[in-house]
Amino acid sequence: MHEPSKRSRPADRHEAIDISDFVYAATGARVRRLTMPDGKHWFPAVDVCRKLGHSNTQKALSDHVPDDHRETLETLTGGYGLSIPAGREWRRDLNIISLQGLVLLVNACTKAACAPFKQWVAEVIETVQREGSYTLQEAEVQPTEPGAPIAYAMPEQVAEAIVRLESHNLQVDEELAVAQRESLAVQKEMLAAQQAALAVQEAMARAMERIADRLDTLVLGGLPGARAGAHPTTESVLADWRQRLSVTEDVWTVAVVIAPVLVEKGELREPLESIAARTGLSVRRVNECLRLLRRHACIRSQGGAENGAPVYILNRR
């Protein structure tokens, strides 16, 4: 999370504790940071406050961080002759706090995760008061390169805080993965249930269609004036339809167009658009007229043609 500065840090400067580990042990997060040419570290106050649970950044700064340890980003970078970093929401008015400001906010935090770090800070203060200084223990394994700085062992409390926070993060990641898998399984079950319900609805619609066709066959009477099994004429069909229902002009217009086709071919397979073009009616009105003729047992549905057009036949004994 380190934002490099435009100038290199002094070659002889060495941090006894890696700043990223130090901040992670204090906050439980890898927050953004700026490192100035003189080696001082600065952090966005909003990042630190969010991770520590301070809901009001301005109030947290006002209550716990003196002016000496906070700046705006524009003032801080301008003092070093640097430009504001690009991207990552680095705004000119962004509140920035020093490492001491970060520690002050940690000391004001009530989260249990901050306790080991605060205990270590207290130990440092108590040791300095008693012995006049605080010295980190040198690490058992030292760098072998000529001129390499001395390596120090990380304080126990800091190391424990890092281990505990890392373990907590791993546990949270695992719980999140389990929740995501369970959510995906529930979504699949819901999709399967929706598909099953749709299949049932389609099956019921087909069954109702067959029942309607069967009832049409059972209740229909023969055409007036025609012998059983005799081939009807266009005139007899239209005369029969006039007796079955009080037709409107639109219905009669459709009836005159489809009756000859039904008589001659035994079925009607024309798309609704074709009938609409021949009658001058809209497709919707043509469909309504056909439904009326079907409801009054003048015609019967026989499913659909290959081109999607509905198929109708005359209702006869």
TrEMBL record:
Pfam families associated with the record: Bro-N
Highest taxon listed in the record's lineage: Bacteria
Transmembrane segments: none
Domain Bro-N, chain residue ranges per copy: 16-132
Stretches of the chain forming a coiled coil according to its record: none
Name this polypeptide is given: Bro-N domain-containing protein
Organism: Streptomyces albidocamelliae
